[in-house]
Amino acid sequence: MMQRWGRALRLWLTSGGYVMLLILGAHLGTPQGWRLSVGLTALMALLAWQLVLKRARAMADTPTSHIASAAQGYVELQGQGAQFEGYPVYAPHHGLPCLWYRYKVEKRQGDDWKTESQDESTTSFFIDDNSGRCTVDPEGAEVLPQHSETWTQGDRRYTQALILPGEPLYILGDFKTQGGDSADLSLRRDVSELLEDWKRDMPALAQRYDKNGDGQLDLQEWEQARSDARREVEQLHRDIRAQPHTHTIGLPTDGRPYLISSHAPEKLGRRFRLWAYAHAGVFLLALGGLGYAWQAHA
Question: Coil, helix or strand for 119?
């Protein structure tokens, strides 16, 4: 929910939200209207400043990790993007192979443009940093691509943003490793679950372990069933631990930023800092304007 709200606020601000609030004040044309407009501008600027500053601090405070040795949890990764073999993704309006896309189609209605359709890909892809590969789940991420273009055909306007295979990637998110010797396995739990599964088909269990044919499993027969279940689970655990590690990175559950970018991290961090300064400046100006509005019409 917070991710969607944060993205909606960023889209509103980048589409001229501050200007819209000032237009609202001018349209209302009353002291109360101006106070409302300037007050909302101050509130929006404060929220935007907090959002951008949160991202800048997360980038500055999180060191870059290597995929092969990254700790579990919140990490920063840098590498090259690659598609899943056999699962190609193509840009909707150019047909180019890509890792991720976002598009919007707008139709002209008089002097305005009305959104006709829009979508964003959620197909996973890889990041490779030469130490290993990590699966990237873009669901819920703030994606900041280098490639974005807008063009018009007839009465429609198309906007499309892409991340291409082989591009350098910067990712900040929640890192997990599954399988291999890091697998979270419990012998007692899995043996218990296997026995419960066997009990669901008691005729088959009795046929396998009721050696005296009395239709019931005595203590010795139950112990044999438990011993066999334990051996099966131990072999399954050995097979799981022999599998290669699978690394994934995705949306943090604690509300920290999840960023995927094809911009250089230095450029991205500088952009966040500049936006933080800009929003802070708007907040201070709006506070001054609000104070003036109260004094002028007191």
Answer: strand
Q: Which of 134, 124, 117 is nearest to 100 (CA)?
A: 124
Torsion from C-alpha of 272, 276, 277, 279, nearest 10 degrees: 130
E strand intervals along the chain:
73-82, 89-90, 97-98, 100-109, 112-120, 125-128, 133-136, 142-144, 147-153, 156-163, 168-178, 246-250, 259-261
- At 93, the amino acid letter reads H
Residue 113 contacts by C-beta under 8 Å, 6 or more apart in sequence?
106, 107, 157
From the list 76, 55, 44, the residue with the least C-alpha distance to 272 is 55
Token couple for 42: 């101050």
Decide: 77 and 65 in contact? Cβ < 8 Å: yes
List Cβ neighbours of 81 (8 Å cut-off, separation of 6 or more): 99, 125, 126, 127, 128, 136, 163, 164, 165, 166, 167, 168, 169, 262
293 contacts: CB under 8 Å, gap ≥ 6: 31, 34, 35, 38
pLDDT digits over 241-267, tens only?
Answer: 766 778 999 999 998 999 999 999 999
* CA separation for the pair 183, 190 (Å, rounded): 13
Structure tokens at 208: 């396998």
SS3 per residue for 100-116: EEEEEEEEEECCEEEEE
Q: How many residues does the chain have?
A: 298
Measured CA to CA, the distance from residue 43 to residue 38 in angstroms comes to 9
The pLDDT score that the predictor gives to residue 2 is 44
Share of the chain above pLDDT 70, in %: 83
Tell me what pLDDT residue 256 has.
93
Closest CA to 216 of 201, 202, 234: 202
